[in-house]
């Protein structure tokens, strides 16, 4: 079994969109994903297992912050540690890239997404804020989000 992390390519958009649709009620289209993969302000990564995409992360540069716009693992590969491996590889890449000014990770996560919160806390992310009614579910219910932050190059990998 060969696990690799690499930068995402436009040809990955279909599989990334499929994973996103399986994981999120408000899925992004393949075209949305393609645009994000090509955006100059974004950095997108995939984790592959024997060449098949199992997880992805789409990140956005914002000054000296890198915001995790979305991260997901294919349903059949959840709880295998792939999201953690992916974030650790991204953290290492940013830490070793002296040309970039990024200093901090930022992300929002629904307060009821306990597996994701456990992942982020295990990596050393700390809650810095709470956004009320940040997400709106398909059933019309609003859900708060926690804002988490961590220092780039300092994740507990």
Automatic annotation (TrEMBL):
InterPro entries in the cross-refs: Acyl_CoA_acyltransferase, GNAT_dom
Instruction: List the keywords (alphabetical).
Output: Acyltransferase, Transferase
Coiled coil where?
Answer: none
UniProt-listed Enzyme Commission number(s)? 2.3.1.-
* Domain N-acetyltransferase intervals: 3-153
Q: Name one GO molecular function term.
A: acyltransferase activity
Name by which UniProt lists this protein:
GNAT family N-acetyltransferase
Q: What is the organism field in this record?
A: Hirschia litorea
Q: What is the lineage of its organism?
A: Bacteria, Pseudomonadati, Pseudomonadota, Alphaproteobacteria, Hyphomonadales
């Amino acid at each position: 079994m060969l696990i690799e992390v690499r930068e995402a390519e436009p040809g990955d958009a279909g599989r990334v969109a499929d994973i996103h649709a399986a994981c999120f009620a408000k899925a992004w289209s393949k075209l949305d994903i393609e645009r994000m993969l090509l955006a100059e302000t974004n950095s997108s990564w995939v984790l592959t297992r024997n060449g098949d995409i199992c997880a992805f992360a789409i990140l956005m540069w914002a000054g000296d912050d890198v915001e995790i716009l979305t991260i997901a693992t294919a349903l059949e590969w959840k709880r295998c540690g792939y999201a953690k491996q992916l974030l650790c590889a991204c953290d290492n890449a940013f830490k070793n890239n002296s040309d970039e000014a990024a200093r901090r990770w930022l992300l929002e996560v629904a307060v009821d997404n306990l597996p994701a919160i456990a992942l982020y806390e295990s990596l050393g992310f700390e809650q810095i804020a709470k956004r009320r009614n940040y997400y709106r579910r398909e059933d019309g219910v609003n859900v708060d989000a926690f804002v988490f932050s961590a220092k780039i190059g300092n994740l507990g990998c």
